[in-house]
Design a protein that fits this description.
alpha+beta; Arc Repressor Mutant, subunit A; two-stranded parallel sheet; 7 strands
Length: about 180
C-alpha cells in the first residue's frame, strides 16, 4: 500500500508516494500518476494511517520535501529518504545509483551513465532506465543528455528538463548544451 503526499514548492505542487519501505515515486505538478511499470506498488493509492503516524514516515516526508526544494533551487539535494525500488530490475537500480553520483550543474551522456552503472555497452538500456526512473529530480535523470549535447528525452517533459538544468547553471543554447565545468 502507498501513501501519497503533496509537497508544495515555488514551482508547483509535487506528489511523493511512500510505501512502508521508503519513497516509491515523485510526480511533477499536474502529473500525479497511479501506475508505473517500474514500480507496480504505485497502482495502489490507499492511505496508510499507520505509516503516516510513524516517526520514520514523517522523517522521510521532511527529507523528501527538503531535498526537492534544494534540487529545485539548483543546489545539492542533501540527505535523501530511503528509496523503495523493489519493483525495478537490478540493472535499472544500477543506473539510478549512477544518476545519484552526477552532481548539480554537471551532465553525463547516456553512454557515460551506462559505463558508470557497470554496463558500458548498454547505452539504449540505460536510456530506458532513465525514462523509467520513478523519482525524477531527486534521482537526477534530467542531468543525462545524448551524445553531442542534445537534450534527449525526459519523463517530465523537455520544458522541465530545461528548467532544472538552467536552475543548476547549465547553459542551454537552442537544442544544444553548453556544459559548464565539464
Amino acid at each position: 500500500m502507498i501513501r501519497a503526499i503533496s509537497i508544495p514548492t515555488e514551482a508547483g505542487e509535487f506528489f511523493a508516494h511512500f510505501s512502508e519501505r521508503g519513497l516509491v515515486g515523485l510526480d511533477f505538478p499536474g502529473r500525479m500518476r497511479v501506475e508505473n511499470p517500474s514500480c507496480p506498488q504505485l497502482s495502489t493509492q490507499i492511505p496508510l494511517n499507520t505509516l503516516a503516524a510513524s516517526p520514520e514516515f514523517r522523517r522521510w516526508e521532511q527529507l523528501t520535501a527538503s531535498a526537492l526544494r534544494a534540487a529545485l533551487a539548483g543546489k545539492p539535494a542533501g540527505m535523501l529518504p530511503l528509496f523503495d525500488w523493489r519493483g525495478a530490475t537490478e540493472f535499472q537500480q544500477s543506473v539510478w545509483r549512477a544518476l545519484l553520483r552526477i552532481p548539480p550543474g554537471r551532465t553525463s551522456t547516456y553512454a557515460e551513465v551506462a559505463a558508470a552503472a557497470g554496463h558500458p555497452r548498454a547505452v539504449r538500456a540505460a536510456g530506458s532506465a532513465c525514462g523509467a526512473n520513478p523519482i525524477p529530480v531527486l534521482v537526477p535523470c534530467h542531468r543525462v543528455v545524448a551524445s553531442g549535447g542534445k537534450l534527449g528525452g525526459f519523463s517530465g517533459g523537455l520544458d522541465w528538463k530545461r528548467r532544472l538544468l538552467a536552475r543548476e547553471g547549465v547553459a542551454l543554447e537552442s537544442s544544444e548544451l553548453l556544459i559548464r565545468g565539464k
